[in-house]
Specification:
2 copies of one chain form a homodimer. Chain A has 197 residues and is α/β, with parallel strands linked by helices. Chain A has helices at 4-14, 21-33, 36-52, 69-72, 87-96, 123-131, 146-159, 184-192; strands at residues 54-55, 62-63, 80-84, 102-105, 137-140, 165-168, 195-196.
Chain lengths: 197, 197
């Protein structure tokens, strides 16, 4: 059981977010019990997704093409940009069906302790998009955490001189929690009742 | 985000035991963020383990060879056989360092509701091993659940005529729980204070 191959298998799974050693062991045995055909199609699905999926050159969201379908869509509002920390946040907001504008992913939040400042985030790309003059509202949907708040207030400061309305989702999100774990109704309400900063 | 490739990726992970849709989504994005080299070695490790690992022809435990190192070892007691439901249970018992005999994996437990009777388990193989006459104790370490208890009492009935001592780990295991989630000390104590049936 201390077999090095099995250790490597467990290690592969315990390196994934949210999976401890016991869960990794269970998953490892599940993999070993799979018949070779199911296993191969399991591996193939993951490899194919990894090969085909990428992040949008414009907004940073998930896509199979250089520019994602939300950025290319002419059925979405062009004047409003929702700023999120992670590409998966787009997924959670789309799920609420309360937002029809476009997105911008920062790839993180400002966190001095972790050495993450504005330069490490996709803020320059955001400013370039705002410079185009087509955007009249920026909806900040960073997480209601220390880092998310710091990012929101930084963005608010740098965008303010540009004569663009700045809003932030506000209602219903538990303080200290993350966007990912809000249910879609709470998150939808938070978008509806956003406050002007 | 409703991208079919991404859905397939999430599906691959949510099909694993103990992983729900939200965890699968987080893992999916983790995979997409991995650099291609790390991803390839992650995939390679899993594929290599799946190819090299198999179940022992003798005891049913995890091994890279036809017969596992525990079955082949001459430093382990040959007269005692510990019967477990799953190959991973060997791992948990080895971890206690309280047992030095050999093992026999049933690959499940008797469960009439799921259509699992003695014929679906590796009980015939167990009886063949007992017929060799070398075994003087069978330590039943099935889980303390309805199915595990049913299996233990079935085994006790069929082994009794053979003049073999039958014991069962007893102390400290939470009723209704599973071997997997016992800590190693409780499980070790349970092995030490086993009761003759």
């Amino acid at each position: 059981m201390s077999d090095p191959q099995f250790q490597k298998l467990i290690q592969s799974f315990s390196s994934l977010p949210g999976i401890g050693k016991k869960s990794a062991t269970r998953i490892g045995f599940h993999i070993l019990r799979m018949d070779p055909t199911s296993f191969q199609s399991w591996i193939d699905n993951i490899e194919e997704a990894k090969t085909k999926l990428r992040f949008c050159d414009e907004c940073g969201g998930l896509t199979e093409e250089p520019i994602c379908s939300i950025c290319l869509s002419d059925r979405r509002e062009n004047g409003i940009l929702c700023v999120v920390e992670q590409p998966e946040d787009i997924f959670f907001i789309e799920n609420t069906k309360e937002y029809s504008g476009k997105y911008h992913v920062l790839n993180g939040a400002i966190s001095p302790l972790d050495g993450i400042g504005p330069e490490q985030l996709r803020i320059k790309q955001l400013m370039n998009r705002l410079d185009s003059g087509q955007i009249n509202e920026v909806l900040i949907a960073t997480n209601p955490t220390l880092e998310g708040d710091a990012t929101a207030s930084y963005l608010s400061t740098v965008i303010k001189p540009m004569d663009i309305k700045i809003t932030r989702i506000a209602h219903g999100i538990t303080i200290g929690g993350t966007l990912e774990y809000s249910d879609q109704y709470t998150l939808g309400k938070a978008i509806k009742s956003r406050l002007t900063l």
